[in-house]
Amino acid sequence: MKVKLKYKGILFIVLSALCFAFMNMFVRLAGDLPSVEKSFFRNLIAFAIALVMLIRQKERFTVEKGNWKFMILRAGFGTIGILCNFYAVDHLVLADASMLNKMSPFFVIIFSFLILKEKLTPIQVTAVCGAFAGSLLIIKPTFLNMDLFPSLIGLCGGLCAGIAYTMVRILGQRGQKGTTVVLFFSGFSCLVTLPYLLFAFQPMSIVQMLFLLGAGLAAAGGQFSITAAYYHAPAREISVYDYSQIIFSAAIGYLLFNQIPDRYSVVGYAVIIAMAVWMFFYNQRHEKSPV
């Protein structure tokens, strides 16, 4: 039974990676609209889909006792993560933005240790440090690097996503339904970004509106999939498969935007993915070894 749940988690997390790659593609295609405006419409569509699903399932929106603080933390950090990611997508090579956002599984490990008190081994500490070193190759922290600021924003997005997904894991353990988590997060994000739209709305063309619709649909698919993934299996067992998004994003960036990452970024990808794969096999051996 545990093995079946793990395979379902893997399937869901790869599906979420594909959906989020398409989301970033549509966000980039939407052009020079503000990140806050893109975030609002992305979350509005996800909210509508989650609401329809809840109504079709004939369920009420209920939050289990003691879960409100985790719902708010998931929504708050998730919203910041989205805004940072969208800013990075608009200003960086698509694969770079995606990889910095995919530092989130390593942050999940850190925050699972800090919040859930899950044991952190020397191997995990080494992997997290190695992944951070890989991220520096992508960020290239020098004052001569014109992409330094958006790179740091992208890394911040990965950190916030890591906290948000740790909250998702807690909510899953506490019996909170995935649909209500997505519904609350999407509604919260819309409310937070609505004041900006009321005072600084930038008109969009029909084509831009269609791209944002596509981003919203892809984001909803990714959100439901990532929530289901972390509900089915622990992050340490499935998070490595989340890096399939880099392959999807690199292919999309090359085919649609003629983007080719520089050699430092490619080495950074390799280091981060190598750390993730190392962690995956370490976890597999650790679980099979006798206690």
Describe it:
It is a single chain. The protein is mainly alpha-helical and 291 residues long. It is built from twelve helices and no strands. It is globular, with a radius of gyration of 18 Å. The two termini are 21 Å apart. The model has no long low-confidence stretch (mean pLDDT 81).
Count of helical stretches: 12
Q: What is the element string, with H for helices and E for strands?
A: HHHHHHHHHHHH
Note the beta-strand portion. Answer: under 5%
Terminal Cα separation, in Å?
21 Å
Q: Extract low-pLDDT stretches.
A: none
Q: What does the radius of gyration come to? A: 18 Å
Number of strands: 0
Helix content: over 70%
- Mean of residue pLDDT? 81
How many strands, which pairing sense, and closed or not: the largest β-sheet? none
What sort of overall outline do the alpha carbons produce when their principal axes are compared? Answer: globular
Overall SS class = mainly alpha
